[in-house]
Amino acid sequence: MEAYKKTIEEVRQELQATSQDGLTQQQASERLEKDGRNRFEEAPKESMVKKILHSLSDFTTIVLLVAAAISFYTAVATDHGDLFEGILIIAIVIINSVLAIVQEGNAEKALAALQDMNKQTALVIRGGQLLEIDAEEVVVGDTLVIENGSMIVADARIIKGSQLRVEESALTGESEPVEKEVDFVATQDENLGDQINMLFKGCTVVNGRGQAIVTATGMQTEMGKIAGLLNESTNQITPLQARLNSLGKRISLIALVAAAIVFGLGYMQGEPLLDMFMTSVSLAVAAVPETLMVIVTLALAFGVQKMAKKNAIIRRLPAVETLGSASVICSDKTGTLTQNKMTVRRVWAHGDEVVDTEDAMTEEAMEVLKIAALCTDVVIEQEKDELNYIGNPTEIAIVRSIQENYHSQKELREEFPRIGEIPFDSTRKMMTTVHKRGKKYISVTKGAFDVLLPLFRFGDLDQATVVNDRFGKKALRVIAVGYRVYDEEPTEMTSEFLERELKLVGLIGMIDPPRPESKAAIARAKKAGIKTVMITGDHVVTASAIAKELGILQKGDKALTGAQLREMSEEDLDRNVKEYSVYARVTPEDKIRIVQSWQRTGATVAMTGDGVNDAPALKASDVGCAMGITGTDVAKGAADMVLTDDNFATIVDAVEQGRTVYQNIRKTVNFLLSCNISEIFIVLIAMLLGWGSPFTAVQLLFVNVVADGLPGFALGKEPATDGIMDETPISPKESIFARGLWQKIGINSLVFTIVTLFGFYLGAFVDGVSPWVSASHEVGQTVAFLILAYSSIIHVFNVRSEKSIFQVKLSSNKSLFEMAVLAIIITTVIALLPFTQELFNLVPVGLNHWILAIALSFVPVFVNEMIKFHKLPEED
Question: Which of 177, 289, 693, 855 has its CA 20 to 30 Å from the CA of residue 608?
Fold first, then answer.
C-alpha cells in the first residue's frame, strides 16, 4: 500500500488497526501466522558439490581433466606405471578449484548480513500495554514506539511525532537526516527520501520521538525488496573468464586436429596403433598449458596483495582483471567523491563582499560564525590528538569553522552563557537560543533564509536576497543568522516573542566539499578513457554543482533525476545513456537500470556504494566497490571489492593495477603458448618426415610445468609499464590475442620449431657431432628436450617488455630472474643425473651436444631483439 498518500485514519482503516490500544495479542498472532515472520527470505544455498562442479566447468579445466584421464589410461595400458603426469595435472586442477571456492563471494554473504541486521527487539503497543518483543514478531498493524537512537524494524506510517528526524542514508543515499511530518499526505508519487510521513526498516532515529503504525514487514519492506533484487541478480561471467574459455576452446581444437592428423598418418604408414595413440596423447599434453590457470590465479592473487596495500580489498579474484577493463565508473557522491563532512565555504556579512573561507577570514565573517555557533547543540569530545564533534552536520560545520579560525567553543559559551532556548523543529524550520551578554541579553535565531526573511526588521535584506540566490546556484546550503538585544532577561521563551524584529547578521553558505584527490583521480580516469558517472540520492542542483567542480559534468553532459529516468523506456535510456553524467534522487531499481544500460552498450561498469540501497547495483555491475568505513555489511557482502579508505582515487589506482594484471596475463599467454604451439608442430613435422616423436609425454610435461611454469609464476609480478593509464579501456569483446599477440606467438613458435627440429635432427641422424656419442633417436630426443627447455626459459625475458631485454632492469622483478635460474638448474640436473635421466627417458650426450643446445637456445632472443630493433617504439 502507498501509505504516504493516505491520512492516518485511512491507514488505520485499511490495516484494520483502528484501536488506540494497538492490536490485541490474538490479532497479532493471526497476522504472524498469515504473513510470516518479519525477516528476509533466504536464498537457496548452493551445495559444496555444486560449487565444486561450477569451479570445474571452465573449458580449460575440462581440457586438462581429459588430458589427465588419457594420461592415466595410457599409463595403465602400456604397463609402464608412470602416473606422475596425470597426478600432476589433477593436482593443478584441484588447486584451482580450491582457490576459486575460497576466494569467490556470492549472494549468500549479502543476505546473511541482511539477516544479522534483523536480529533486534522493538517496542510496540498491544492491548494498551507497552511491550518489548522480538523484531521478527512485529506484524502489519502494530503500533511502534520510537525514540532517539531507535533502529526501525519495519516500514511504518507515522501517527505521532515530536521533532522526529531519521537517518536514511543507507536506504536513500541522502547525506542529511530527514525531518518527518506526521500530517503530511502526498498527492503524487514520491521518492523514498521525500516520503516524510514514513519510516523505513533499517534506518535510525537520530532525534525526537513518536509512534508509527506498521505498513509492511519482511520482504514487503523497502529493504526487503532490495533483498529480493539481490536474489534475482546473477553473477556475470567476467571478461577474463570469457577470454580464457575461448583460449581453452582454441587450444583443444588445435590439439584434436593435430592428434587426428598424426594418428591418421601413422595408421596409413602401418605404425602400431598403441604407439600412435601414445604420440597423440603427447600432442594433447603439448597443446594444453597445464600451468596457465595456476599462473593466472597467482597473477590475480598478486594483484590482490598490491591492491590491499593501496586500500582496496578484493573479495573475488577475477574482479582484479575486470576492474582493469572498466570503461565506466558509477560513483556515489557522499563520502566517496566528497568528504562527507559539511564545511563552511562562504560567509556574507554586508555589502557586496563575500568571504571565501578557503582564502582568508575577515572580522565581519568571524562575527557571523561566532553568533551562529552560539545557536548550536554541538558537543566536542577530545579523542587523543583529535576533536570529535557530535551533533547535526550543519551545526558541526559552523562550530568546526570557529574552532579552526577563532577560539574554542567552550570559551565562547563561557562568554555568552545560554539561559534559554527554543529547539529546532520541522514546523518552524529554525532554532533560537537566549544568552547573557554582559549586562544585557541577546537571542540568536538561525534557519533557512526564506523562512527567516519575514522576521528580519534590520539589515541589508535586498543584498542578502541576491547573495542567497548566488549561494543557491553554487549548491551551497544557506543558513541565515539574526539576533535581537534585550535590556532585561526575556520573560517569555516563546517563538512569538523571541523570533521577531530580528537584525540580520549574515548568511553562511556550506557544502560537503569534494575530496582534494577526487578531481585529479577523475581527470586521470578520463585520460585513461574511463567515464565517471555520479549516481546519488541528493538533489540534482547539489549533485550537479559538485559534479561540475570535480570535472564530471562538462560541456555537453547532462544531469537526470530519478523521476525523469523512470519515465524513459529501456530503448531511450540505452540510446542516450552516454549523455548523462549525473543521476540525482534515484532509487535502488534506478541504479540497476543505469548499470545494465551501460552494460548493454558494451561498457564494463564499476559501481561504488555504501548503503543497503546500493547493494543490488553493486551486485549487478561488473565490479562492485563497497565503502569500507561508511559501508553497510549488506553493501560489502554484495561487492567484489571493498575500499578501506572510502576514496574514489583508490578505485583509479585499482584500475591501474587491474590493467597491469591483465597485461601480465597476456605476457603469460605469449610465453606459454609460444612453447606449447611449437611443441605441436615439432611433433607433427617430425612425424610427417618419418623421424618419430622428438619427445615423450613426460618430457613435454616437464617443459610445460617446470621450464615454462617456474618463470611463468613470476611474470604476474611484472610492474606496470609507463603510460598504461594513457591507453583506452579493453573491450570485453576483445580477444586476448588482439593487438598483435597472435603474430608474436606465431613468430616465436616458428623459431622454437625450427631450432628444436634442427637440434633433434643433428642428435638423431648426424654422427660426429660429439666424438664419443653416436647419433640415435634417444640422443636426438635429449638434445631437442634441452633446446626446447632452455629456449623457453630464456624466452621469458623476451616477453617482459616491448623494449630490448638490455633496457629492462632485472632488479624490477627479481623473482623472475631467480625462477629462471632455478628452472635452468633443475633442467640441467635432470639431464646429468642417471636416476632422473631414466625417469624422463633421457640419455647422456657429448659436450658438443651441450654447446649446440645452449647456442640454439639463444636464437629466439636474437630474433626477438631484431624485431624490436626494427619496430617503431610503442608502449606495452
Answer: 177
